[in-house]
Amino acid sequence: MTSARAALLAATERLAANSETARLDAELLMAHALGIEREGLLLSGLGDEAPTAFESLLRRREAGEPVAYITGRRAFWTIELEVAPGVLIPRPDSETLIEAAVDHFGEAGPRTILDLGTGPGTLLLAALDQWPLALGLGVDRSERALALAGANADRLGLSGRARFRAGDWAEGLEERFDLVLCNPPYIEQGALLPRDVADWEPAEALFAGPDGLDAYRRLALQVPALLSQGGVACVEVGAGQSKSVAALFDAGGLEAAFRDDLAGHVRCLILRPSSR
User: Which CATH architecture best describes the domain 85-273?
Assistant: First the structure.
């Protein structure tokens, strides 16, 4: 018998060449193979026999497939989302947008929320879970993403408060919202990315023109008309982009405050109508 502990040690060595989080990857895959949570594995499952299914999962990760696609889920904020190939995997950095919104609205929260480029429902469903009285709309061009977002809303018991629709950013939207959330593509075309991102995640959710700012140029024209009185927009930006993106929104009548992620990079612009 090979124990889960021994199998994890060997798996970590195998993954080390291709992953900066080799041990974590191995633990998540082992927990998935055993049908338990990672916490249960670490607390009481390391002495269990390693299941035969673990090897096939490990080979998929060695080939570059993201752990979230292999397990079919990803934790984000207070919720767990189902994810699948063709849809952007939620990142911890994006939780910065929810943190900024919580600081702004407090426990009372916004009453209406819009998530542009919702993917599997990441930001919208996290916000609705945070504020039980809020209603929200998620927009995405991808039918695959919208199907997954709807399934996540159902599984989380949020389908009564979440709507989803196909759309090209805010084109055709006439509603106004207390909170607008958006994590647009912002990577420069041709930028080098880790293999598990470049080869597996959808390019349309990653790349945004030669300078990575194409999506922001459109959003800067649309977001001001989406905000209700006293409303704010929380928009994710890439490292080093905050000033350029803030200038685009400033030209559209919105002034920006900045919020750092845990690594100390500006990750979120908090946008309000300009006082000038």
Answer: 3-Layer(aba) Sandwich (3.40)
